[in-house]
Design brief:
The chain is an alpha/beta fold. It has a domain of about 200 residues: Rossmann fold. The chain is built from 5 helices and 13 strands. A 6-stranded mixed sheet has the order 4-3-5-9-10-13, covered by helices on one side. The protein has a 3-stranded antiparallel sheet with strand order 6-7-8, with no helix packed on it. A two-stranded antiparallel ribbon has the order 1-2. α4 packs across α5. The radius of gyration is 21 Å and the shape is globular. Belongs to the peptidase C14A family.
């Protein structure tokens, strides 16, 4: 049985149907939130508004040590943390870094930030540097679901960030598969109707950038830091106010894919392996950082 919905296209009312079994009825949760929040940008603006009085908060959850018996210490993660912290500060963010927090303490920080007033902020950044598995990340004392990170910041829960970019960067394994790569030989030679009010999905305006694709290993150098964080910080430093974020993340993928290869000659199975980041976007506009004014945005 189909459930119908009503949409408007070019001013014409049209019936839509739910495409999933049991949609709007059987074991489904439907938000009835109908709060009107002041939009930070015009309906069809190409770019997010990055001209608020403050750039916004950036949280870094850095995990080096664990009480979980099978998890080794993450040597090199502090290099990632300091590198990312400096890079985000240069872009105008107020950066808070946390080290080896428990699951409970991570939740406390997420709840605290979700309850803040972000009205004068451009966006939010949250980064996690840790061990992981498919769909899971590790705190100091155990695993938690990765999607719980952004659960607190949907538009219905954190209304002062509604319509603003919420950016998540995750350096962690998503499994134990390896990518041996392949050698390539280089060649020698919409309309809309006008309205002052519009609705957006509560899950809109998120971007989640994983260091690797689902099911695969994520590499980290013990002295220089992880491949993904190295590439991300270089790209943000070199082109942070030149390109939009998705363009920069495309080049982050390029850097990781082309410039890095594992070097473990004593372990042939792990030697000369490759990696590719995975970007999931629910952004509705382009994110382009404006130059900081005297280092402060």
């Amino acid at each position: 049985m189909c459930s119908t919905d009503t949409s408007i296209n070019n001013g014409v009312q049209i019936d839509d149907v739910g495409d999933a079994f049991g949609s709007f009825g059987r074991n489904s949760t439907v938000s009835t939130t109908n709060v009107t929040q002041l939009a930070p940008t015009q309906r069809y603006e190409v770019y997010y508004n990055m001209n608020h009085s403050k750039r916004g908060l950036a949280l870094i959850f850095n995990h080096e040590f664990f009480t979980v018996s099978h998890l080794k210490s993450r040597c090199g993660t502090n290099v990632d943390c300091e590198n990312l912290k400096a890079t985000l500060k240069d872009l105008g963010f107020e950066v808070n870094d946390y080290h080896n927090l428990t699951q409970k303490d991570i939740v406390k920080q997420l709840e605290r930030v979700a309850e803040m007033d972000h009205s004068e902020h451009d966006c939010l950044v949250i980064a996690v540097l840790s061990h992981g598995e498919l769909g899971l990340l590790y705190a100091h004392d155990g695993a938690y679901k990765a999607d719980s990170l952004w659960h607190y910041f949907t538009a219905d829960k954190c209304q002062s960030l509604a319509g603003k970019p919420k950016l998540f960067f995750i350096q962690a394994c998503q499994g134990d598969k390896l990518d041996p790569g392949i050698t390539l030989k280089e060649r020698t030679e919409t309309d809309g109707y006008p309205s002052s009010i519009f609705r957006i999905p509560t899950q809109a305006d998120f971007l989640i950038a994983y260091s690797t694709i689902p099911g695969y290993y994520s590499w980290r150098n013990t002295s220089r830091g992880s491949w993904f964080m190295q590439a991300l910080c270089v790209e943000l430093r070199d082109n942070g106010t030149r390109y939009d974020l998705l363009t920069m993340l495309t080049f982050v993928c390029q850097r990781v894919a082309v410039d890095f290869e594992s070097n473990t000659p004593d372990n042939i199975a792990m030697h000369q392996q490759k990696q590719i980041p995975c970007i999931t976007t629910m952004l509705t506009r382009l994110v382009k950082f404006t130059p900081p004014r005297n280092g402060i945005v």
